[in-house]
Write a structure and sequence with these properties.
This protein is mostly helical and 495 residues long. It is 83% helix and 0% strand. Helix 3 packs parallel to helix 6, helix 8 packs antiparallel against helix 10 and helix 14 packs antiparallel against helix 20. The two termini are 21 Å apart. 41% of the residues are buried.
């Protein structure tokens, strides 16, 4: 596959991915109060427990999705090898789905009665929701090997199309189900159809584009399984570490401070995660592209460096925005009584910006076959958080922001140093140019963050113009060229 084709696919995937995130937010904002009003507080709470099953299934893939992408890209010229790895992965996903469904059916009664102690008149509802959601989400889960086949051939944009289809169909089926009868049973049953749509889209797309997929379990081999599990285990451990990081931090906050600090963390962290998800969407293409080009440093450099420049171009002004407008943002969202959340918010976003700053390097290292690196560095982040909470606990409500800021800075520093060791000769970030853009943002924050809102709204656009002018001058990122490419994409009707 030519570099130009890979870049075009990455751009298309990035644009459609950002579009997916943008439409997801209003759909979520509309659907949540609608479901809450239709079901009532008690049934809505029971429905919210469905996320436990979704998280359990998501964590249950043992890293096989990324492992399949990695091995497919390494055997991109061998259809026989691709088919073998695919069938081994498909069998594992089928087995895992069956195990999780069985586990859910057997332990749902114990979980609802003993663990979360649901009122006796709601136990049957909870058991039905947990069991049916396990079956429902299993359809989407089993579609993962087909998704991996598509993404390993650099067509990540199709995954975004599929998730857009899920968002819209889930919205429609939910509205229809609850308008017919506002029942948690109807809502639960309706949830299966969007997941079937996801499976069908991945299944038919992969079968159409990759006709050598045979669904032949005679190709099952211990060697293939062992190779996939060996690589996938590192990914899986990293995924678990990332998943438990937030609960651990919340537990440490509650232990060392108070519940008010937990609330402040939840509000600020959740808002920052939503905001940064828009910026980091293009980075979803890094893994598959890096896996394909890991042994071609020249081509890899042409792919990774633009991602690094993109991060510099957008994460810095986004952080500046949160430092300047955090008070106005929180007041608009939650009211004036959440001043402490507004104070912590910019540092929380800065922490996440530092974390995702080196995401292209982190994913490239991971895609080069060093999956254990991912597990080790994520464990280091958690260990650092635990140690820092002991040291900084006296800072009360600000502890979580400081802890994440330091921990994520260590994470990115290790990524930069490790990348230089593993990929000698590839230069990604230009230190002096990045420092210049950082200092410009720092000066902007220093001089206008405490000014009146009208002054802030007048000066910030001028700062953005200067920032993107320097990005273009430094040949880091050309926003004008980006706009032209978006227009061209619309003209070609490729969206």
């Amino acid at each position: 596959m030519q570099i130009k084709e890979i870049k075009n696919n990455i751009f298309k995937s990035s644009f459609i991915g950002i579009f997916r995130v943008i439409i997801a937010i209003p759909l979520y904002l509309i659907l949540t109060p609608f479901v809450l009003n239709k079901l009532g507080i008690e049934d809505f709470a029971i429905w919210s427990f469905s996320t436990i099953i979704i998280s359990l299934i998501s964590l249950g893939d043992f890293g096989f999705k990324n492992s399949l992408i990695y091995h497919i890209t390494k055997n991109i010229d061998s259809e026989r090898e691709q088919n073998s790895y695919f069938n081994n992965a498909l069998l594992m996903f089928l087995v895992i789905a069956a195990v999780i469904i069985t586990f859910t059916m057997l332990f749902a009664p114990y979980f609802t009665k003993e663990i979360i102690d649901i009122p006796s008149d709601s136990v049957d509802k909870a058991i039905f929701v947990l069991g049916f959601v396990a079956v429902s989400f299993a359809f989407r889960f089993i579609g993962t090997p087909y998704q991996a086949m598509i993404e390993s051939h650099q067509k990540i944009y199709f995954s975004h199309y599929t998730m857009i289809a899920w968002l819209i169909s889930n919205f429609i089926f939910t509205i229809i189900a609850l308008n017919i009868t506002p029942s948690i049973y109807h809502l639960t049953i309706a949830s299966i159809f969007p997941n079937i749509i996801v499976f069908a889209m991945y299944f038919f797309k992969s079968c159409k584009d990759y006709k050598y997929i045979s669904h032949d379990f005679s190709l099952i081999s211990f060697r293939y399984m062992k190779e996939m599990l060996k690589y996938g285990s590192g990914i899986h451990l990293a995924t678990i570490a990332i998943a438990i990081r937030e609960p651990i931090i919340k537990s440490l906050i509650a232990k060392n401070t108070d519940l008010l600090a937990v609330t402040i963390f939840e509000l600020s962290y959740r808002l920052c995660i939503q905001a940064v998800s828009i910026i980091k969407t293009p980075l979803l293409s890094v893994f598959s592209a890096s896996a394909l080009l890991a042994n071609d440093k020249e081509s890899l450099n042409k792919i990774i460096t633009p991602f690094c420049n993109y991060n510099i171009a957008f994460l810095i002004p986004s952080s500046v925005f949160f430092f300047i407008f955090s008070a106005e943002l929180i007041a608009l969202w939650l009211g004036d009584q959440h001043g402490e959340t507004a104070e912590i918010l910019p540092y929380m976003f800065l922490s996440l910006s530092i974390y995702y700053l080196t995401e292209p390097l982190y994913k490239t290292i991971e895609a080069s076959g060093r999956s254990l690196y991912s597990a080790i560095i994520q464990v280091i982040v958690i260990a650092t958080c635990i140690v820092l909470f002991d040291i900084l606990s006296e800072n009360a409500h600000y502890t979580s922001a400081y802890v994440l800021l330091i921990s994520f800075s260590i994470f990115s520093t290790i990524n930069m140093l490790s990348f230089r060791v593993f990929f000698r000769g590839i230069k990604t970030y230009n230190f002096m140019k990045s420092l210049t853009l950082f200092l410009l943002g720092y000066i902007c924050v220093l001089y206008i963050s405490n000014e009146e809102p009208i002054f802030k709204f007048s000066i910030f656009p001028l700062y953005l113009l200067m920032h993107f002018y320097l990005c273009r001058k430094f040949k880091l990122f050309d926003v004008i060229h980006l706009i032209k490419k978006i227009i061209a994409l619309f003209k070609k009707n490729n969206i």
